[in-house]
């Protein structure tokens, strides 16, 4: 499908057929489940993906691997176990040992190999300070690339990590970042600032929207200037486009990039919203924010704590909103949102067509009839 730059929205024929909040992430992608620094050599670490407990094991030598976090014997978490000198994880209960393929290699009190049942092993990769698993069909793992992440490793940028947990479906987070028209929410942090929609591009697996920002009144916070550039109140005159903010969902990941008036990348955000519970209404976000270093790099180092506090406050306002949206969905028994912005309507279609309706999902027509009754 070719990209397009209009604000046209999908026709009704392509609209979601199920309540978007009942559509799970497609498991046939690489999802981060832990920061590399959390999984120490010779240790096991407990993680989760969509209700599935995951044990991450890092041998003293060799790459990290991932197993179902349940011993095949009595379902005790393998993450509570011991990593032996062969790199196998031994259950803390009876000492059953499992290798990186999930095979039970030892049931110690029987003095025999291949007696116990195996556990599920997940394809596992490590990149940019994150540990990824492939929770879908393992035969597809090698054909799906692990994503490139912000500017991690680029010495021209300074990068920070964040990993908030949110009580909402992952789709709320995609919508929140994609729709920059909600700056009124952040008025206490950013003052009087407005977003101007510049257009969108669409493809088979992505949607990108572009904006510029203008200050309509008041002084600009220093931390905001570091992110969006220096904007002044022009006393009613239109703010020129000096920076372009591009938000892109390339399923299932999301990015936000800021380019200055010369086209240079000055900020690069990458984020993945990982579902935790079975119904995917609790989300663990893994994000990395890279900021281009100025000529005098120490200035960014000095401002780094203030920038972190600023972005934290902005996110906490977003968190409160998306969790209220999720609460309303529960109270109303479904998605009653009236969406008028074509970009978000297109985003909802993208998420719905690439996701997987869960076992609770009902067709929208049936949902509407039940609500009316």
Automatic annotation (TrEMBL):
Keyword set for this entry? 2Fe-2S, Iron, Iron-sulfur, Metal-binding, Oxidoreductase
Q: Which InterPro entries match?
A: Cholesterol_7-desaturase (IPR050584), Rieske_2Fe-2S (IPR017941), Rieske_2Fe-2S_sf (IPR036922), VanA_C_cat (IPR044043)
Q: One GO molecular function term?
A: metal ion binding
- Gene3D superfamilies recorded for this chain? Naphthalene 1,2-dioxygenase Alpha Subunit, Chain A, domain 1 (3.90.380.10), Rieske [2Fe-2S] iron-sulphur domain (2.102.10.10)
Keyword Transmembrane helix listed? The answer is: no
Please verify whether the record's keywords include Iron-sulfur.
Answer: yes
Q: Where is the Rieske domain?
A: 30-133
Q: What protein name is recorded for this chain?
A: Rieske domain-containing protein
């Amino acid at each position: 499908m070719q990209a397009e730059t209009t604000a046209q929205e999908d026709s009704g024929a392509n609209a979601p057929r199920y309540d978007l909040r009942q559509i799970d992430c497609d498991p046939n992608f690489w999802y981060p489940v832990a920061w590399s620094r959390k999984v120490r050599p010779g240790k096991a670490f407990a993680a989760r993906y969509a209700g599935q407990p995951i044990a991450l094991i890092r041998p003293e030598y060799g790459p990290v691997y991932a197993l179902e976090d349940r011993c095949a014997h009595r379902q005790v978490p393998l993450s509570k176990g011991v990593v032996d000198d062969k790199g196998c994880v031994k259950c803390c209960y009876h000492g059953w040992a499992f290798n990186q393929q999930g095979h039970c290699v030892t049931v110690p009190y029987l003095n025999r190999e291949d007696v116990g049942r195996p556990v599920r092993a997940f394809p596992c990769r490590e990149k940019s300070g994150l540990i990824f698993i492939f929770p879908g069909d393992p035969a597809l793992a090698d054909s799906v690339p692990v994503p490139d992440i912000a500017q991690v490793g680029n010495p021209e940028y300074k990068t920070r990590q964040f990993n908030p947990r949110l009580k909402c479906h992952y789709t709320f987070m995609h919508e929140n970042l994609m729709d920059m028209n909600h700056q009124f929410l952040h008025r206490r942090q950013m003052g009087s600032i407005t977003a101007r929609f510049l257009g969108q591009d669409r493809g088979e697996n992505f949607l990108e929207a572009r904006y510029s920002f203008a200050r309509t009144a008041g002084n600009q916070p220093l931390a905001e200037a570091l992110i969006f550039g220096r904007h002044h109140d022009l006393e009613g005159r239109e703010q020129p486009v000096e920076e372009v903010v591009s938000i892109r969902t390339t399923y299932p990941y999301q990015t936000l990039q800021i380019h200055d008036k010369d086209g240079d990348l000055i900020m690069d955000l990458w984020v993945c919203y990982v579902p935790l519970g079975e119904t995917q209404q609790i989300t663990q976000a893994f994000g990395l924010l890279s900021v281009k270093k100025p000529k005098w790099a120490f200035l960014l180092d000095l401002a780094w704590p203030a920038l972190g506090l600023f972005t934290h406050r902005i996110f906490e306002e977003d968190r409160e909103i998306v969790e209220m949206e999720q609460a309303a969905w529960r109270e109303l028994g479904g998605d009653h949102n009236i969406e008028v912005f074509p970009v978000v309507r297109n985003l909802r279609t993208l998420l719905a067509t690439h996701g997987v309706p869960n076992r609770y999902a009902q067709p929208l027509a049936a949902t509407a009839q039940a609500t009316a009754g």
